[in-house]
């Protein structure tokens, strides 16, 4: 309501936003116009007020959500700090456990497995780095009162545990019964023995591959072709950088008699029958291997790639050396492998890791150590304790001139001692812990795990296989 006294205009705004004006003199025209303009602004002012009210409500909600988020972040930070403390404590506990296991490593432990009592040592049960089951088990169960009359009970099959205990003691797996192998595979998974599980899977796959490749194995029928003599290899190789006289001939070591073996070497039979199997039905590229699964073989072919000018379907990789057959000395290696090229060296450690190296130049036993250039050389890992997938490690460009080292007292030797140590070297008596790894030196580490991707700095070989390439054409 507006009013005018003594010349002042009186205006009344009713409930319908209409303005009633009483004019008392002629000077009220301008005031009337102002009021009319104000009347037109009222709806807009109301709309702005509503919008401001909505925005204020949104701001209140944002503030509430922000406070909730801030509280959540603080809670997560506290939880992270707690987890870090727990992780640090777990690491300390693990160190303490390992110390206690090492202190008591030679103490006897008595186990009752399914009614059968076994006596062994803590060291035997815990020495495999891929078997955490027994570390936890011994920490929780074992104490000084453990005895033959008070054994620790494990509710599993004692008959199968006998095989497991033999494997833990020797690292060897000799099981002829197929059913026992499959039963033992279940036990290996229960005891979390990854190495044993891998070895059993490899044995089963190799057996299945041999049955599929040799349809005559289950019948008395003779094969359509009999094994023929191995083809002699000339010392001159298309992959060798240094040509040698053509009148020097190399004979495969598998043509030689094996005085300690009454049956043919597996590689000899597989190589001889290779021509009877069509290329599209071949199950592996490295016949006779006891270390390579079909997946590992495919990876090796992939790693070599363009370094091998022969297409995979035209390749026949021939086994020329197996340490368990021909001996673990450097002299045995040179006797079987000199002058062959290219070669793939496949190594299995006493802990079950599988790795090796490739070179396109022939090995030799010079009277003194000599470095050799090979830009195509590389190292590889197939099975490792980090569970990293098969990986190739190429030689560094600046060290290609010393990619390989030849030495009469060493077997396969990748890298040069001049470069602060060989990346991988098998020394005399391969099955002793004298072999060494100084990787990465001349070769490139693409995993950032260092030499442990292969084995410990000094390690023993359980098996070594070396293959050379022949052309089917």
Automatic annotation (TrEMBL):
Gene3D superfamilies: Potassium Channel Kv1.1, Chain A. PROSITE patterns: BTB (PS50097), TLDC (PS51886). Residues 107-177 form the BTB domain. Residues 215-246 are annotated as: Disordered. This is BTB/POZ domain-containing protein. SMART domains: BTB, TLDc. The lineage of its organism: Eukaryota, Metazoa, Spiralia, Gnathifera, Rotifera. Transmembrane segments: none annotated.
């Amino acid at each position: 309501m507006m009013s005018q006294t003594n010349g002042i205009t009186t205006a009344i705004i009713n409930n319908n936003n209409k303005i009633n004006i009483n004019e008392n003199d002629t000077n009220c025209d301008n005031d009337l116009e102002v009021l009319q303009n104000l009347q037109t602004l009222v709806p807009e002012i109301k709309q702005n007020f509503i919008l401001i009210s909505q925005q204020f409500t949104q701001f209140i909600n944002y503030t509430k959500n922000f406070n909730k988020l801030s509280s959540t972040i603080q809670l997560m930070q506290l939880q992270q700090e707690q987890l870090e403390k727990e992780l640090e404590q777990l690491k300390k506990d693990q160190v303490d456990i390992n110390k206690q296991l090492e202190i008591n490593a030679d103490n006897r432990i008595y186990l009752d497995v399914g009614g059968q009592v076994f006596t062994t040592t803590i060291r035997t049960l815990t020495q495999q780095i891929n078997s955490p089951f027994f570390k936890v088990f011994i920490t929780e169960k074992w104490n000084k009162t453990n005895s033959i009359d008070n054994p620790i009970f494990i509710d599993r099959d004692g008959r199968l545990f006998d095989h497991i205990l033999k494997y833990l003691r020797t690292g060897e797996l000799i099981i002829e019964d197929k059913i026992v192998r499959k039963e033992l595979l279940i036990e290996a998974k229960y005891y979390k023995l990854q190495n044993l599980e891998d070895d059993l899977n490899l044995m089963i796959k190799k057996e299945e591959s041999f049955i599929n490749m040799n349809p005559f194995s289950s019948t008395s029928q003779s094969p359509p072709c009999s094994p023929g003599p191995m083809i002699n290899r000339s010392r001159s190789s298309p992959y060798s950088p240094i040509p040698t006289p053509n009148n020097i001939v190399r004979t495969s070591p598998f043509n030689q008699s094996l005085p300690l073996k009454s049956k043919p070497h597996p590689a000899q039979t597989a190589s001889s029958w290779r021509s009877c199997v069509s290329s599209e039905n071949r199950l592996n590229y490295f016949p006779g291997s006891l270390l390579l699964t079909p997946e590992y073989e495919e990876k090796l072919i992939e790693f070599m790639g363009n370094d091998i000018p022969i297409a995979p379907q035209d390749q026949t990789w021939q086994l020329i050396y197996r340490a368990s057959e021909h001996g673990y000395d450097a002299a045995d290696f040179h006797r079987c492998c000199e002058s062959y090229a290219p070669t793939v060296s496949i190594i299995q450690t006493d802990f079950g890791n599988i790795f090796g190296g490739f070179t396109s130049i022939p090995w030799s036993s010079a009277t003194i150590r000599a470095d050799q250039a090979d830009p195509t050389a590389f190292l590889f890992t197939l099975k490792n304790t980090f569970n990293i997938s098969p990986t190739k490690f190429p030689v560094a460009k600046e060290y290609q001139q010393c990619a390989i080292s030849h030495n009469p007292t060493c077997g396969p030797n990748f890298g040069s001692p001049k470069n602060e140590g060989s990346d991988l070297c098998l020394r005399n008596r391969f099955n002793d812990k004298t072999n060494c790894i100084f990787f990465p030196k001349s070769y490139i580490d693409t995993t950032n795990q260092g030499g442990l991707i292969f084995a410990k700095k000094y390690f023993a070989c359980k098996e070594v296989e070396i293959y050379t390439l022949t052309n089917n054409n």
